[in-house]
Amino acid sequence: MSAPTASRTPAVRFLYAGAAALLAICLALLAVALRPSWSDESVSLTGGSATDEVTLTVTRPRTGATGVDVRVTPRGGGRDDAPAAVTVQAVMVTHGHATPQAPARPRGTSGTYSTSVHLMMPGRWTFRVSLDHGSRSEHVDFPVAISG
């Protein structure tokens, strides 16, 4: 073995060890950043259409009976036509699961509705909120991570 090759071996080993440590740290950070929220705290998401802003709150994002609140606010604030019907359906496209459409009942203040859905397994679910205004209907989808 020549002298230059022998002196590079510890440096190369050090670089490999540094690269491995950096890769491990990056993978750990990526796992933390991409992990779903596995908590019992409520999850609120806001979306909407050109005419309505919809806020979905899943009160307990876990499998089993799950409470869902929907708040519908007209955009522009000028009109005051509440939807004739609000329904919520949870769909897990990757496994072919879907709950029946659950009618949401008005609750307290104008524009707030409540219902519950039964989720059969943990994972990424899409909550589809349907608003029926009589002459028109709208659908707003919300992705939610559900834990076991």
Description:
Helices cover 22% and strands 45% of the residues. Strands 1, 2, 3, 4, 5, 6, 7, 8 and 9 form a nine-stranded antiparallel beta sheet that branches. The relative contact order is 0.18. It is an alpha+beta fold and 148 residues long. It contains one helix and nine strands. The protein has one helix at 3-34, and strands spanning 43-48, 52-58, 64-74, 85-92, 97-98, 102-106, 112-119, 123-132, 137-146. The chain starts with a helix and ends with a strand. The longest helix has 32 residues, at 3-34. The chain has two domains: 1-35; 43-146, Immunoglobulin-like (Sandwich).
Brief account:
The chain has 2 domains: 1-35; 43-146, Immunoglobulin-like. The protein is built from 1 helix and 9 strands; from the N terminus they run αβββββββββ. It has one helix at residues 3-34, and strands at 43-48, 52-58, 64-74, 85-92, 97-98, 102-106, 112-119, 123-132, 137-146.
CATH architecture of the largest domain, by name, is: Sandwich
Give the number of DSSP strands.
Answer: 9
Name the helix and strand elements from N-terminus to C-terminus, one letter apiece: HEEEEEEEEE
Using only CA atoms, what is the Rg? 24 Å
Top-tier CATH class of the largest domain:
Mainly Beta
The outline comes out as elongated
Which features does this protein show?
22% helix; alpha+beta; 9-stranded antiparallel β-sheet; 1 helix; Immunoglobulin-like; 148 residues; 2 domains; YtkA-like domain-containing protein
Secondary structure topology:
Elements: H1 3-34, E1 43-48, E2 52-58, E3 64-74, E4 85-92, E5 97-98, E6 102-106, E7 112-119, E8 123-132, E9 137-146
Protein name: YtkA-like domain-containing protein
